[in-house]
Every structure is written in C-alpha cells, then in structure tokens.
Design goal:
Layout: H1 2-15, E1 23-34, H2 42-53, E2 58-67, E3 70-82, E4 86-95, E5 98-108, E6 113-121, E7 123-138, E8 145-160, E9 163-168, E10 171-176, E11 179-197, E12 200-209, E13 221-231
Antiparallel strand pairs: 1-3, 1-13, 2-5, 3-4, 4-7, 5-6, 5-7, 6-9, 7-8, 8-11, 9-10, 11-12, 12-13
Amino acid sequence: MLPRLSLIFLSLIASCTFAARPGLYLGGQAGWGNVHDSGISEGDMGHMIGEALGEFNFTINSFNGTTSDSGFAWRVYGGYQIGYNWAVEAGWAQYSNLSIDATAAGIDNATGVPYTVGTSSGIFKTTAFDVVGKYMYAIPYFCPLHIFGTLGLAFVTGHTEPVMAVTEAGIVSGGEDVITATKVYPTFGIGLSYDLRNDISADLFYSRIQKVGDSDHLGSIDMVTLGMALHFG
C-alpha cells in the first residue's frame, strides 16, 4: 500500500514540472461578449431629429433604442509573470459590430404636427484596452490547474454612425451623425487555467468591465472566453 501511495505522490510532484514558467507570455482568447448598450441615446436621436427638421423646437414623447448587444468577441494579450503567483497583463478586446434599431415619436412644436423617426442603418463598434494585475493560485495536489483573478482598468471606446429618417405629414427627411465616446472603467475577472506544458497554457475566463457614473454611451461589458498562451520565460 505504501509503495503505491508513494508512486501517486511522486506522480503529483512530477505533474508540477508542467507549471508555466515565469517571464514573458503572449496569448489570445475568443468567445462571447455583451456590451449592454444600444449604441444610441435619446439625446443622440434628438440631435439628429433637429438636424432633419431644420430646427430644435420639438418634443420627444417616446424613444426606443435597441440593438442585439451581444455576439462574438476576442482579446489578444501579453504580460509578464512574476514567480508562480503574480503577473501584470495588458490586452486589447474587440466586440461584435452591432446593428442599431432605434425609433422615436413626438410633436414638432413649430408646426404642431406629429412626427416619427427610425434608424435606417447604423453600426455600433466597441473596443477596449485593459491593464490588469493577475493573481494565480495552483489547485493543491494538481499543480497544472490554477484558479486566477484579475483587477485593473479598461479604456473603452464606442463608435456609432447612425442614419435615420424623420417622417412628418408624409414628408421624409434624413439625418445622420458620427458619435464616438471614450471612458475609463474598472475591470475584473476570474478564470481557470491549465498548464499543458511549461510553455503552453489554456484558460477559461470570465471578465467584466464595470460602468461607473452616468453615461449615455458605453455600458458595462461582460465577456466569456476560451484561450491559449505561449510562455517564453
């Protein structure tokens, strides 16, 4: 019995030889992301309505800004691992280009005539650059498997180019705008990584960029990914 336990113990120790070595690493992740944003606010819509009507004496009685705010997302990253528990990492994430479908209705106060408006086209693009600290903890008795957490800041950019049509008394007027917003939000995440070899690791990762403050643009962002990294030591 003791020899068998000794062999098991030695095999567990040997498995630690696959631990990713400290130093420089580069990787990529791909999966699903949700930007929690319509890409256009009521204020944005009001600005375009005013341009289409040729004046800003109107009232918006209803507004609906919707988009399919989730889809494919990916992130590339690089970092430096300090020992076997800590790392500093920077990454660049790209989220799906999302189609905008927004509508509004109200009264043109200058004429007293009601109007309706809807977007005919428009794409909402979101990217994020993040800088995080990373802590890794090896699962006891199974060194290749780690649980890890990240905490840092994300620099988020949203870009929208909506095109819309305003209909008033049967007359259609067009309007368009270019909207770019940039915010700095806190970001955090948690994941599992597995060291396939001391120079290759795979991971399952959930991250969140948390909206802070009142903003018409750039909501919180969730992302779930699978990834791989190369460790150069």
